[in-house]
Amino acid sequence: MPALVQTVAFDSAPGFFTALFFGPIDGAIVTGLGHLATASVNGFPLGFLHLPIAAGLAGAGAAIGLVNRLNWRGSTALALLVGSMINVGLVVLAAPVLGWEATLAFTPFLAFAAGVNALLAGFAYVGIRGKVRI
Questions:
Q1: Could you tell me which of 39, 43, 63, 120 has the fewest CB atoms within 10 Å of its CB?
Q2: Whole-angstrom distance, CA of residue 7 vs CA of residue 53
């Protein structure tokens, strides 16, 4: 996805889906590793800051899995909203490298990408959860 930092991609969708389908631990692992994989392909543009970002995204994956497990009506949508908000909130970690002005300019791109990742994961989850039993 076009953005100031090229690690904005569809890397969260598999982790978000995993969190919904398999739970918080698996979701945390896949979401955190997904960010590191995307960052490595793009040459780690934020340097060492990708490690705390990956840890934060692992937290987002865990939060999605936990909220979805509550089984409230609408918990899947709420889980994806919580995870996306955590994802976007992690933008503050980029401020030391990008500066505050660029970080604020980058935020809409990140919010859009987080929303698209959440929608992809949500549609995939809803589409197959009744068809596959594990």
A1: 43
A2: 11
- Hey, what amino acid is at 33? L
Total-model pTM: 0.87
What is the tens place of the pLDDT at every residue in 18-37?
A: 999 999 999 999 999 999 99
Indicate left, alpha or beta for 8 from its phi (over 0: left) and psi (-120 to 50: alpha).
Answer: beta
Task: Output the DSSP codes for the chain.
Answer: --SSSTT-SS-HHHHHHHHHHH-HHHHHHHHHHHHHHHHHHTT-TTGGGHHHHHHHHHHHHHHHHHHHHT--TTHHHHHHHHHHHHHHHGGGGGHHHH-HHHHHHHHHHHHHHHHHHHHHHHHHHHHHTTT---
What six digits make up the tokens of 90? 């992690």
Query: Percent of the chain having pLDDT more than 90?
Result: 61
Alpha carbon distance 121, 73 (integer Å): 18
